[in-house]
Specification:
Elements (H helix, E strand, L loop, with lengths): L6 E6 L2 E6 L10 H15 L6 E6 L18 H20 L4 E5 L2 E3 L1 H7 L3 E5 L3 E3 L13 H9 L1 H10 L3 E2 H7 L4 E3 L4 H13 L3 H12 L5 H16 L2 H12 L9
Helix pairs in contact: 1-2, 3-4, 4-5, 8-9
Length: 259
Amino acid sequence: MPSGPFVLVDDDGPVRTFTLNEPGRRNPLSVPLRRELRAALEAAHADPTCRALVVTGAGTAFSSGGDLASMPRNDRADARDRLHLVADVISLLVEGPLPVVAAVEGAAVGAGTSLAAACDYVVAGRSARFGAIFGRIGLVADSGLHWTLPRRVGPGPARRLLLRGALVGAEEAHALGLVDELADDGGALAAAHAVAAELATAAPLALAATKRLLADPPATLADTLHAEEAVQVGLFETADFAEGNDAFFEKRRPVFRGA
């Protein structure tokens, strides 16, 4: 196995890009990669200069999914350790305060589909492919896909994709809602950076609150109204709201500080 780094980190102003970096094997989510990605996400969420994230893959694929070559057989402890690592990664993507944009070229299959689905916004090249193909090797979908996929595409399409394990192209994935934006082949990363740069100018506290509400939605309308009220009352007291309000009346772009 290559010695790494398995995740490349690059900053462009307030946008931080993570590149899954084992292109010779189409960027499988090996244990070392999971560890590096978890550490990179933790560092980004703790860095006040970082305002938006992009996740992409090196070479011709986003990710081929789990690392079959090292998957455990008859070793429950090892299996649990691997799953706990990827659970941490998915939780950081979904529940972390920073918005995350996936840039998908080529295959994003198995846990690669799960990784993309956990991001807030997915840009895909027109030749990209997605698929919950876990059943082909006798496994069930993991990495949060039973939670993220129905929220993206609805319960009916999610059931079909999870049970049949069929590959879907970028156009169909876009029509279903798994992909948010299509780009020409080779252009997904640039398009994702444009989205991330836009998100990086938004009010960080409001974005983080929106992510929290989406990740843990209240069960009823009444609960939703109460949750929104609790968040909004706090945001009314922030410097960012004062800045946004002033900028609106002064007809200029606001400069948010996350305070």
